[in-house]
Amino acid sequence: MKVALFLPCYVDQFYPKVGIATLQLLEKLGCTVTYPLNQTCCGQPMANSGFENLAHDCNELFVENFGDHYDAIVCPSGSCALHIKHHLHSDKREGDALQIRSHMYELTEFLTDVLKVNHLSARFPHKVGLHQSCHGQRGLHLSQMSELVAAPYSKPEKLLNMVDDLELISLDRKDECCGFGGTFCVFEEAVSARMGIDRVEDHIRNGAEVLTGGDMSCLMHLEGIVRRNKLPVKVMHIAEILNQE
Asked: Which of 27, 45, 133, 222 is most buried, judging by how many CB atoms fall within 10 Å of its CB?
């Protein structure tokens, strides 16, 4: 399968190991992966702040980079994947933009729904708490929302349960927001920080050694809280765990 790897700008700049782990994991699972070198920000920060009209050039550049009709475009970030799925348009190449939107996948969604992975040769002997980010859960439907009277499911949990010696802990509030919310953490700093503290404390209270998730933006927020308060938990993207040997 011919796959294009879309790495959000903050992953590229601050968490390159997440991009490397994603690439290695996809190749282990038999994908032929291409990384378009001229990719930059997808425009999500502007759109989420009410300035989508200023993201025009970001849209056109994204189509230029990913418009070669790949079998799939995979992103280790639910929020950026959701933005492209729902909001990508092009004045010059709208047909290619629609093609991209229909072939865009968040990483865990791609592994479970497209590759239909049922076995991973990974081992991670730690107690792990899963943070299910809002964009992934409520936008991409990667997991069921607890307020609904419906059968529970979680695509990230399904994958983590395939990792040898990994113990997935239960949280008191498994689908609560971490408070990051992109620019929300800037405009509502105190509320955002308090929500993040509550989220981290839930993991620590239930014995997590490692806090993971599928969106590095949320994990960046939580890791900042962990570091400033010198808390006894490590933060890792799910790709880094699934890629363990």
From this structure: 133
Query: For the segment 38-60, what is each residue's pLDDT rounded down to a tens digit?
Result: 999 898 888 878 888 888 899 99
Which residue from 35, 36, 59 is spatially nearest to 46, judged by alpha carbons?
59
What pTM value is reported for the model? 0.94
pLDDT in tens, 120-156: 999 999 999 999 999 899 999 999 998 888 999 999 9
Q: Helix, strand, or coil here: 129?
A: strand
Instruction: Say how far apart CA 55 and CA 41 lie, in whole Å.
Output: 9
Q: Which residues contact 88 (CB under 8 A, 6 or more apart)?
A: 42, 59, 62, 63, 97, 100, 101, 104
**For the chain, what are the domain ranges?**
2-114, 127-243
Neighbour order of strands in the sheet with 2-5 = 32-34, 2-5, 72-75, 104-106
Helix (H) or strand (E) holding 4: strand 2-5
Question: Considering only CA atoms, which of 15, 67, 76, 1 is closest in space to residue 39?
Answer: 67
% of the chain surpassing 90 pLDDT:
80
Reported as a single tens digit per residue, the pLDDT across 182-227 is: 777 777 788 988 999 999 999 999 999 999 999 999 999 999 999 9
Contact 102, 93 (CB under 8 A): no
Paired strand residues for 53 = none
